[in-house]
Amino acid sequence: ALVLFLLIILGVHLYFIMNVSGLENKIRDAEAKLVVLDKKVGDIEGFKKDKRELEQKLGVINSLETDRLFPVRMLDELNMLVPAKEAWLEKITQTKQALRIEGMARDNGVVARLMKNLEKSEFIQSVELVVSREKELVGMKLQQFILTCVIKKGT
């Protein structure tokens, strides 16, 4: 009976050893698959990062392409808005969404007309008179003016 008991214990022990060995093999296989999958996940993350960078670069290129002709259109429209032979622009400066216009006009009425024309423009959101002072030039009294304009976004 003792021998039978020992044989049963030995059989159960061998059974457990074989099961443990099989489970250890499965664990090694799963860990190997995990390493391969981790590498693939890393590759995918790299591709996603590259895609984001390319999309950002494309956005910049599209923005530049859209904004490329804006200065030409703006100057052309400005030319049409300035009252002919009554006002002269001396300096135009653009910084981001702001436009500074410096010039001379025959009188304050011409400056006011220019401001109204600018407000109706498709690319100007608002116009503000910064300076208007009388200046004598070649024996004529003229109005020297400085205007600041806010450029509409997306134009």
Descriptive labels:
155 residues; alpha+beta; four-stranded antiparallel beta sheet; 4 strands; 28% strand
Tell me the structural class: alpha+beta
Strand arrangement across the biggest beta sheet: 1-2-4-3
Shape: rod-shaped
| Major β-sheet annotation | 4 strands, antiparallel
Number of continuous helical runs: 3
Count of DSSP strands: 4
Whole-angstrom Rg:
39 Å
| Beta-strand content estimate | 25-35%
Name the poorly predicted regions: none
Task: Please characterize this protein's 3D structure.
It is a single chain. This protein has 155 residues and is α+β, with helices and mostly antiparallel strands. The chain has helices at residues 2-67, 70-81, 108-120; strands spanning 87-95, 98-105, 124-137, 140-151. Strands 1-2-4-3 form a four-stranded antiparallel β-sheet, covered by helices on one side. The chain starts with a helix and ends with a strand.
In short:
This protein has 155 residues and is an alpha+beta fold. Helix content is 59%, strand content 28%.
